[in-house]
Design brief:
Blueprint: H1 6-13, E1 20-26, E2 31-37, E3 42-50, E4 58-63, E5 69-72, H2 78-89, E6 105-110, E7 121-122, H3 125-133, H4 142-155, E8 161-165, H5 175-178, H6 184-190, H7 199-212, E9 221-227, E10 231-237, E11 240-244, H8 267-274, H9 279-288, H10 291-296, H11 302-310, H12 314-338, E12 343-347, H13 348-353, H14 355-362, E13 384-385, E14 394-397, H15 402-418
Parallel strand pairs: 1-6, 6-8, 9-12, 12-14
Antiparallel strand pairs: 1-2, 2-3, 3-4, 4-5, 7-8, 9-10, 10-11, 13-14
Helix pairs in contact: 2-4, 11-12, 12-14
Bound molecules: adenosine-5'-diphosphate (ADP).
């Protein structure tokens, strides 16, 4: 597998124009992909493979501007999944390229880059070993990312591959923000510290907010609220992430769809004893059965909670209230950490689509010099400034686009090497 040497890559890239980038995001049983033409940053096709290694695996492939094609086939592993995606992309009927050789580069989402990866990198054998080394701190996320990388490297030999890390953007955090109150040796020995996630998304929306304000990100203090099923907030001071709510794993911070977010650590041994749970079970309990699902007892989806609360369901209302309160508290904390704020951005499923939740979170933040305009706030999934005119602190809804950041990084890294 480690045939991929830097020299080979440089030779492969020499004289090559990077136009079409294949963006791959592998989960344990899923693959999301997009094919992006970098001339105009145009999405040519996108797809989702689900239930890899299970019964009923499917591929949903959508060529730009056309209907989704639903393919049901056995997909035992990620390699077969990638082959299927390429088959769909090159299909005579619904493909968007003639041949796999039209793919100039592949960009991979990698969840954990530890302390080593502070930016996106061209994948070499050494980089692969580095990603493997991070599996210890991200045992659920990094192995599927590696399956995807290995599959693409085998199938598309000679095509440059780039890794884009969820953690990289947060590597600018200072020690005061990332150290836990544990014996220092735990940090030195095992790398136990805050890493933060959703970095690609926070970076994208912060950049867009700066563009919309016609300012440079390096002159702004931005609080980015990525509120989806997984949720995190980042304090981005003068272009750099200086703090974020997720920690050593994505479990810390806000209350999420099914994740508890921060709790008193003493609750863990208490519950293990009372409810007779082992380490695996408590981990599952905190990651999959807690959060707004746990509080409401109804659903992990805010849409369900909003309609249940409207029907008078108290626990759904409580889950919404607890979530909004926590987000507001983080915003306040990050204003303090940055010595002020110039813009607050909402993104991801809930942040982009729920005027109700945005209003609830921002209600009471007027002391910062901001207020939501109720009419402008009636927006779903579209980029818009939603604060009142002339507000000192701007509030934006900005749909995230992690795939585009991955494609851009892949394109830029490959171009830099071509110019060597
Ligand atoms: P993830 O990528 O973390 O799985 P998403 O960013 O896709 O999550 O967000 C999914 C969540 O967004 C859903 O669980 C739901 O709670 C919320 N959501 C999506 N659309 C709406 C909507 N119209 N109103 C309220 N919440 C929504």
């Amino acid at each position: 597998m480690y045939w991929y040497l830097r020299l080979d890559l440089i030779l492969a890239l020499t004289g090559r124009l990077i136009v079409i980038v294949f963006v791959v995001n592998c989960g344990s049983s899923s693959i999301k992909y997009q094919l992006i033409n970098m001339e105009g940053e145009r999405v040519m096709a996108k797809g989702l493979i689900e239930r890899i290694g299970m019964e009923g695996s499917t591929l949903k492939h959508t060529p730009a501007g056309k209907y989704t094609i639903d393919l049901k086939e056995e997909i035992p592993d990620h390699k077969v999944g990638i082959r299927m995606a390429i088959k769909a992309l090159t299909s005579k009927e619904y493909g968007v390229i003639k041949d796999m050789s039209e793919i100039d580069a592949v960009g991979h989402r990698v969840v954990h880059g530890g302390e080593r990866f502070t930016d996106s990198v061209l994948i070499t054998s050494d980089v692969l070993r580095g990603i493997e080394a991070c599996c210890e701190i991200a045992p659920l996320h990094n192995p599927p990312n590696l399956y995807g990388i290995n599959a693409c490297m085998e199938i598309m030999r000679g095509t440059p591959q780039v890794a884009v890390f969820d953690t990289a953007f947060h590597q600018t955090m200072p020690k005061v923000a990332y150290l836990y109150g544990l014996p220092y040796e735990m940090y030195v020995k095992y790398g136990v510290r805050r890493y933060g996630f959703h970095g690609t998304s926070h970076k994208y929306v912060a950049l867009r907010a700066a563009e919309l304000m016609q300012e440079h990100m390096n002159d702004l203090r931005i609080i980015s609220c990525h509120l989806g099923n997984g949720a995190s907030i980042a304090a981005i001071k003068y272009g750099k992430s200086i703090d974020t709510s997720m920690g050593y794993t994505p479990l810390e911070g806000l209350i999420m769809g099914t994740r508890s977010g921060e709790i008193d650590p003493a609750i863990i041994p208490f519950l293990m004893e009372k409810e007779n749970m082992n380490a695996q079970q408590i981990d599952d309990y905190l990651n999959r059965r807690s959060g707004i699902l746990g509080i409401s007892g109804l659903s992990s989806d805010f849409r369900d909670l909003e309609s249940a609360a409207n029907r008078g369901d108290d626990r759904s209302q409580l889950a919404i209230d607890v979530f909004a309160y926590k987000v507001k508290k983080y915003i306040g904390g990050y204003v303090a950490a940055m010595g002020g704020v110039d813009a607050i951005v909402f993104t991801a499923g809930l942040g982009e689509n729920s005027p109700f939740m945005r209003d609830k979170i921002c209600n009471g933040l007027e002391y910062l010099g901001t207020r939501i305009d109720p009419d402008l706030n009636q927006v779903r999934g579209k980029e818009r400034e939603i604060s009142v005119r002339r507000a000192r602190v701007k509030i934006f809804v900005i749909p995230t686009n992690e795939e585009l950041v991955i494609a851009r990084d892949t394109y830029n890294i490959c171009r830099r090497i071509i110019k060597l």
